[in-house]
Specification:
heterotrimer, A mainly alpha, B mainly alpha, C alpha+beta, A: mainly alpha, 18 helices, C: alpha+beta, Immunoglobulin-like, five-stranded mixed beta sheet
C-alpha cells in the first residue's frame, strides 16, 4: 500500500481538503476533489432517477386503461411534466457530468479539474434546484403542468393567480440548472484544452474526452438560448410582458425556436458522452483497437456542428413554412452520417475480436442495438411527410425513449459497471449485473417498442385517456415500464453490497489501456504523483506498446506489488 | 503506485507549486473567455428576438409613443465606448508597473461606467412607456436592462480590482483579474454598440 | 474460396433484401386505413423507409450478433485480438454510402411533400383576415366554371372543444363533415392556446396557433367516420379534445348541410365540460389542482353522435 506514504509525502496544495480520503463523510462535504464530486453527482442523480422513474410508473399505471381513472387529469399532467424535467435536468445531465468529472482528469493525466471550487459550486447547485423543483408539489396549484417544453400560452395560464406557482418554480429550477451546467461546461472544456498531460495531443486523447468536449461545447452555445427564452417566459408569467403571449401581440412560436435551439442539441449533450463510453468499452472487451479512432473522435465535433442547425425538425407541424421544413429535413438527415461513422466503427471494432460478455459489455452492446433502432426511426422522423403524421404521437415518445433509456441510460449503466472498481476499489457482483442487464434490456423493449405502433395508429403523446383502439399496446408498454422499475432493484443491491463487501479491486481489473488504469483503485488523492508523459495513441490492444514513457518500469513494479 | 515515482515526487514537489500558480492564472483567463463567448449567445438570442419582433409585429410601438430620443443615449454611447480606451491605458500602466497611473485611469473608467448607468436611469425615468407596454416596451427594457446589469457588474468588478491593487505586491506578477475585468468591459462595450444600432439607430 | 465468400455474402444480402421488402409491405398494415390522397403518399414513404431501415438494422445487428455468438474469447484466453486500427477505404465508403442514402431519402420525401401540397402556415404573420380575403375572391371567380368548388370550412379550437363553421351554408357543428373526393379546405384558428389539428386516417397534422389563421388542405378519398384529435398539448383536458370526422358522398354532404341549416342551435358535444361538471359537483373525489375552466358547450346546429367510429 504505497498510496498511503504517497499521500503523506505529496505537497500540500492550495485547495482545502476536508475529511480523510478514506472517510465516507467526504461525500457529504463541500469537497473540491473531482473524484468526490464525480461520485456525488452520480449518486444524487441516481436518487432523482428513482424519483422520476416512480412518476413514470404512475403514468404507466394511468395508461394501462383507456379512461383517465387513476389520478386526476391535473395530477397526470403534472406527473409527465415533472417526469420529463427530472429525468433530463436532474438525472441525465448530472450523471453524465459526474462521469465526466470523475474520468476526464484521470484520462488526460491531470490532478484535478481546472477550477475545483467552481466545480463544487456547480455540483451543490444540483440538490438546490432539485429541492426547488420538488417543492413545486407543495405550492397552491401544484407543479408545472405544461410539459417539459413549457410551451406558451399553456405555460402562461395560471389558474390560481399566485405569483409563486409551479411554473415559476419550474423556470427558476431550469435556469439554475442552466447556470450550473454552464459552470460545468466552462470547467470541463478548460480542463480538456489546457490540462492534458505532456505528450497527450488531441489525437492521443481518449474518445470519451473528445465526446465530452463536443457535448460541453453544445452546452456553451445552446444553453444561453434556452436561458434567454426562459427569462422572457418568466417575465411574461410573473410581470405580464407580452413576449410570447398572443393575447397581447406576442409570438408563441418564437419561444419554440429558443427552446429547441437548445433542447434538441441537448439530446446530443446526453448521447455524445455515451458514444464516448461505447468507444472506450468496445476495445476493452473485444481486445481490439478502436477502429478508425480519428474518424470516431472527429465525428463527435461534426455532430456538435450539425446539432446547431437542426432544431426546427421539432416544429415541422408547428408554425413552420414549407421552405424551412425542407431545409431542416436535409440538415437533420445529415446527422446520420457522422453517427453512422461511429456505429460502423464500433461494429468493426467488435468484429474479429476476442469478446468477453461481462456486464459492462452487455450493457454497451444492448445500448448500441437500441441506438441503432432509434437512429433508424430518427431518420424516418426527419422525413417531413411522415413526421407530420407521427409528430406529437407516441411514435416520437418511443423513439425518444429508445435514445434516452435504450441507449443513454444503458450506456451510463455500462460506464458505472466498467469504472465501478476504479471508483470504489471494489468489484461488483457479475451475476447481479447480468440479471440487471436482462431485466433492463427486456424492459426497455417491452416498454418502448409498443409505443411505435400506438403512435403510427395516431395516439397523441401526453394524453391521460385514449380511445380503446390503443389499449393493447399500452398494456404491453405499462408491463415493460413496471419491469424497468423492478430492474433497478438488482442494480441498487449490487452497488450497495459491492461497495461495502465486494472483493478488493486491483488497479486494472479489465486489463484496459488508459491513464486511469495506471493508478490504484480508487486513485490516490490528486491522481498522479508524477504527471505521466503519454507516448502513444489510446486503444493499443494487441500492439504491446507502452502508453506512457515510464510505463515499462512501473508496470513491472505494479505487478510485483500486487 | 510505484516506489520509482516516490522520490521523483519529492523532487518535483517544490517546483510544482510555482509553475502551477502561473498556469492556474492562465486557465482562469481561458475559462473566462469561454464563459464570455457563451454569455454572448444570450445577447445574440435577445437580438434575434428583437429583430423578429420588430420585423413581424403589426403594432410595434405602444399607443402614443413616437419613438426614442437619440441625443442623450448617443452621448452615453460615446462615454461608454471611450471608456474602453481608458481602461486599456490603465492596463498599459499596470504593465509598466506604474500603480498610481493604473489606479487613476482605472478610476476614470469606473466613473465613465457609472455616468453611463446614471444616464440610462435618467432615460428610463423620462420614458412614457413601461416594461409591459407591448413588444417594444418589453424588448426595450429587457435589452437595456440586461446590458445595464452587465455594466453594473463591470463597475463592481473594477471596484474589487482597484481595492486589490492596494495589497502590497499583489500585482507584481501581472493580474488575471485585471485582464479579465478589462476583457469583460470591452465585451460590454461591443454589445452596447450593437444594441444602440438595433434600438436607437434602426427605428 | 474467394468466390465462395462472395456467393455467401450475396446469399445473405438476398435473404436480407427479401425480409426487408416483406417488412416494408407489412408496414402498410401498421397504419390506420388510409382515407385521404395524402395518406396514400405518406404510406408509400413509410413503407420505403421501413424497407431501407430494416435492411440497415438487419445488416448491423446481424453482424453484431454473429460476433457475439461466434467470436467470444475462450474461457482462459487472456490474449488480444488482431491490432487492426482502421481502414481508410472502408471508412470513406461508410461515410459516403449514408450520405448518398440520406440524399435519396431527402429527395424522395421532398417529392412526396410537394405532391401533398397541404399548405400549412405560409406567410401568416398578420392574422387571418388578409389571407382569407384573396382566397374567397379566388373561390368566387372559380365558381362559374367549377360549380362544386369546395367552400372553406372554419375550424375553431378552444380549450377543449372543436367547433366547425360552414360559412356558405351558415352551419355550425361539433362534428366535421367532408365531401368525399373533394379537396377539403380549412382555415384553422385558436382562441386561447396552441392546439393541433390531427386526423390519423388522413395522415395530416397542423398546429393551430392563436393569433394566426392557417390554411390547410387535403383530399378525403374514403367514406366513413374518423377521429380528429388535438395533437399539441393544450392543458388539463387535452386528451378529451377529440371530435368525429364524417366523410360522405358529395350528395349526402350537400343534403346534410341543407338539413342541418334548418335546425335551431343546441349545445354541441363537449366531453371536457361534462367531465369538469363531475368535478365541480364533487362526484369525483380524487385530489387534483385548480384548472383552467373548460369553455362551455358551444351552440351549434349539429352536435353529432358521441360514439367512437367503428374500426
Amino acid at each position: 500500500m504505497t498510496e498511503i506514504s504517497l499521500e503523506a509525502l505529496s505537497p500540500k496544495r492550495e485547495q482545502p481538503v476536508p475529511g480523510e480520503p478514506e472517510n465516507w463523510r467526504r461525500f457529504f462535504s463541500f469537497s473540491t476533489d473531482h473524484k468526490v464530486i464525480g461520485i456525488q453527482y452520480i449518486v444524487v442523480a441516481f436518487v432523482f432517477f428513482l424519483i422520476g422513474g416512480f412518476l413514470a410508473m404512475i403514468i404507466r399505471g394511468e395508461l394501462i386503461t383507456p379512461e383517465a381513472d387513476l389520478v386526476d387529469r391535473t395530477v397526470y399532467n403534472a406527473l409527465f411534466t415533472m417526469h420529463g424535467t427530472i429525468m433530463l435536468f436532474m438525472w441525465t445531465f448530472p450523471v453524465l457530468n459526474g462521469l465526466a468529472n470523475y474520468l476526464v482528469p484521470l484520462q488526460i493525466g491531470a490532478r484535478d479539474m481546472a477550477f475545483p471550487r467552481l466545480n463544487a459550486v456547480a455540483f451543490w447547485m444540483v440538490p438546490v434546484f432539485g429541492v426547488i423543483l420538488m417543492a413545486s408539489f407543495l405550492v397552491p396549484g401544484g407543479p408545472s403542468q405544461s410539459g417539459w417544453w413549457a410551451y406558451p400560452p399553456v405555460s402562461l395560464q395560471n389558474p390560481t393567480g399566485n405569483l409563486i406557482n409551479g411554473q415559476f418554480l419550474w423556470i427558476l429550477a431550469v435556469a439554475l440548472s442552466g447556470i450550473s451546467s454552464i459552470m460545468g461546461a466552462v470547467n470541463i472544456v478548460t480542463t480538456i484544452i489546457r490540462m492534458r498531460a505532456p505528450g497527450m495531443t488531441f489525437f492521443k486523447m481518449p474518445v470519451f474526452c473528445w465526446a465530452v468536449m463536443a457535448a460541453q461545447t453544445i452546452q456553451l452555445f445552446g444553453l444561453p438560448a434556452l436561458t434567454a427564452g426562459a427569462v422572457m417566459l418568466l417575465f411574461d408569467l410573473s410581470v405580464g410582458t407580452s413576449f410570447f403571449d398572443p393575447a397581447t401581440g406576442g409570438d408563441p412560436v418564437l419561444y419554440q425556436h429558443f427552446f429547441w435551439f437548445y433542447s434538441h442539441p441537448a439530446v446530443y449533450v446526453i448521447i455524445l458522452p455515451v458514444f464516448g463510453v461505447f468507444s472506450e468499452l468496445f476495445p476493452v472487451y473485444a481486445r481490439k483497437p478502436l477502429f478508425g479512432y480519428k474518424f470516431v473522435a472527429v465525428s463527435s465535433f461534426v455532430i456538435t456542428g450539425l446539432s446547431a442547425i437542426v432544431w426546427v425538425h421539432h416544429m415541422f407541424a408547428s408554425g413552420t413554412p414549407g421552405w424551412m421544413r425542407m431545409l431542416f429535413m436535409a440538415s437533420t438527415m445529415l446527422i446520420s452520417v457522422p453517427t453512422g461513422v461511429k456505429i460502423f466503427a464500433w461494429v468493426a471494432t467488435i468484429w474479429g475480436g476476442k469478446i468477453k460478455l461481462s456486464t459492462p459489455m452487455l450493457f454497451a452492446l444492448g445500448g448500441l442495438v437500441n441506438f441503432l433502432f432509434a437512429g433508424i426511426t430518427g431518420i424516418m422522423l426527419a422525413a417531413v411527410p411522415f413526421d407530420i403524421h407521427v409528430n406529437n404521437t407516441y411514435f416520437v415518445v418511443g423513439h425518444f425513449h429508445y435514445v434516452i433509456y435504450g441507449a443513454a441510460v444503458m450506456g451510463i449503466y455500462a460506464a458505472i459497471y466498467h469504472w465501478f472498481p476504479k471508483m470504489t476499489g471494489r468489484m461488483y457482483y457479475e451475476g447481479l449485473g447480468k440479471l440487471h442487464f436482462v431485466l433492463t434490456f427486456v424492459g426497455v423493449n417491452l416498454n418502448f417498442l409498443p409505443m411505435h405502433p400506438a403512435g403510427l395508429m395516431g395516439m397523441p403523446r401526453r394524453v391521460a385517456s385514449y380511445d380503446p383502439e390503443f389499449a393493447y399496446w399500452n398494456v404491453l408498454a405499462s408491463l415493460g415500464g413496471f419491469l424497468l422499475g423492478v430492474s433497478t432493484l438488482p442494480f441498487l443491491l449490487n452497488m450497495i453490497s459491492s461497495w461495502i463487501l465486494g472483493e478488493k479491486a486491483p488497479a486494472n481489473p479489465w486489463r484496459a489501456i488508459g491513464l486511469e488504469w495506471l493508478v490504484s483503485s480508487p486513485p490516490p488523492h490528486e491522481n498522479f504523483a508524477v504527471i505521466p508523459t503519454v507516448v502513444s495513441e489510446p486503444y493499443g490492444y494487441g500492439k504491446n506498446e507502452p502508453l506512457i514513457a515510464s510505463q515499462m518500469a512501473s508496470t513491472e513494479l505494479t505487478s510485483e506489488l500486487s | 503506485m510505484s516506489s520509482v515515482n516516490l522520490d521523483q515526487s519529492l523532487n518535483s514537489a517544490a517546483t510544482v507549486h510555482a509553475a502551477d500558480h502561473h498556469e492556474e492564472g492562465e486557465h482562469r483567463l481561458f475559462g473566462f473567455i469561454v464563459f464570455l463567448l457563451s454569455e454572448s449567445v444570450i445577447f445574440l438570442s435577445f437580438f434575434v428576438g428583437y429583430i423578429v419582433y420588430k420585423t413581424s409585429a403589426t403594432d410595434w410601438l405602444p399607443a402614443g409613443v413616437e419613438g426614442l430620443e437619440v441625443r442623450e443615449p448617443f452621448i452615453n454611447t460615446i462615454v461608454l465606448v471611450s471608456s474602453s480606451f481608458v481602461i486599456y491605458i490603465a492596463e498599459r500602466y499596470l504593465h509598466k508597473e506604474n500603480l498610481w497611473g493604473f489606479r487613476a485611469f482605472w478610476l476614470l473608467t469606473m466613473a465613465m461606467g457609472s455616468f453611463f448607468l446614471y444616464g440610462q436611469a435618467v432615460e428610463w425615468m423620462g420614458l412614457d412607456f413601461g416594461f409591459t407596454d407591448g413588444l417594444f416596451g418589453g424588448t426595450f427594457y429587457l435589452l437595456t436592462g440586461f446590458h445595464g446589469l452587465h455594466v453594473l457588474t463591470g463597475v463592481l468588478l473594477q471596484g474589487i480590482m482597484l481595492g486589490r491593487s492596494f495589497i502590497p505586491g499583489n500585482y507584481d506578477d501581472g493580474e488575471v483579474g485585471v485582464a479579465a475585468t478589462s476583457l469583460f468591459w470591452h465585451f460590454v462595450d461591443v454589445i452596447w454598440i450593437i444594441l444602440f444600432i438595433l434600438i436607437y439607430v434602426w427605428q | 474460396m474467394n468466390l465462395r465468400l462472395i456467393l455467401k455474402l450475396a446469399a445473405i444480402a438476398g435473404v436480407m433484401t427479401a425480409i426487408s421488402l416483406w417488412v416494408g409491405q407489412l408496414a402498410y398494415t401498421w397504419m390506420p386505413v388510409p382515407a385521404s390522397e395524402e395518406a396514400l403518399l405518406v404510406d408509400h414513404l413509410f413503407s420505403f423507409l421501413t424497407t431501407l431501415g430494416t435492411f440497415i438494422f438487419l445488416g448491423v445487428a446481424g453482424t453484431l450478433l454473429y460476433s457475439v455468438l461466434f467470436q467470444r474469447a475462450a474461457k482462459y484466453d487472456e490474449g488480444d485480438g488482431p491490432p487492426i486500427e482502421g481502414n481508410l477505404t472502408l471508412e470513406i465508403v461508410w461515410t459516403a454510402i449514408p450520405l448518398v442514402l440520406v440524399i435519396w431519402i431527402a429527395g424522395y420525401s421532398y417529392r412526396i411533400y410537394d405532391e401533398m401540397n397541404i399548405l400549412g402556415p405560409m406567410e401568416h404573420m398578420h392574422g387571418g383576415a388578409a389571407i382569407a380575403a384573396p382566397l374567397t375572391l379566388a373561390q368566387a371567380t372559380d365558381a362559374p366554371e367549377a360549380p362544386e368548388a369546395p367552400e372553406i370550412i372554419e375550424v375553431h379550437a378552444r380549450q377543449w372543444v372543436w367547433e366547425f363553421y360552414y360559412p356558405v351554408a351558415n352551419v355550425t357543428s361539433t362534428e366535421l363533415h367532408l365531401p368525399n373526393h373533394r379537396r377539403a379546405k380549412l382555415t384553422l384558428t385558436s382562441e386561447d392556446v396552441l392546439h393541433g389539428f390531427f386526423v390519423p386516417a388522413f395522415r395530416v397534422k397542423q398546429d393551430v396557433i392563436p393569433g394566426r389563421s392557417i390554411d390547410f388542405e387535403f383530399t378525403p378519398i374514403r367514406e366513413g367516420t374518423y377521429r380528429l384529435r388535438d395533437s399539441q398539448y393544450s392543458g388539463t383536458y387535452f386528451a378529451a379534445m377529440q371530435a368525429n370526422v364524417v366523410v360522405e358522398s358529395p350528395d349526402d354532404y350537400q343534403q346534410w348541410l341543407t338539413d342541418v341549416a334548418a335546425l335551431s342551435p343546441q349545445p354541441g358535444l363537449n366531453p371536457s365540460y361534462d367531465e369538469y361538471q363531475v368535478k365541480v359537483e364533487n362526484r369525483d373525489n380524487r385530489p387534483g389542482w385548480k384548472t383552467v375552466e373548460p369553455a362551455p358547450y358551444p351552440l351549434v346546429n349539429y352536435s353529432g353522435a358521441p360514439v367512437l367510429p367503428e374500426r
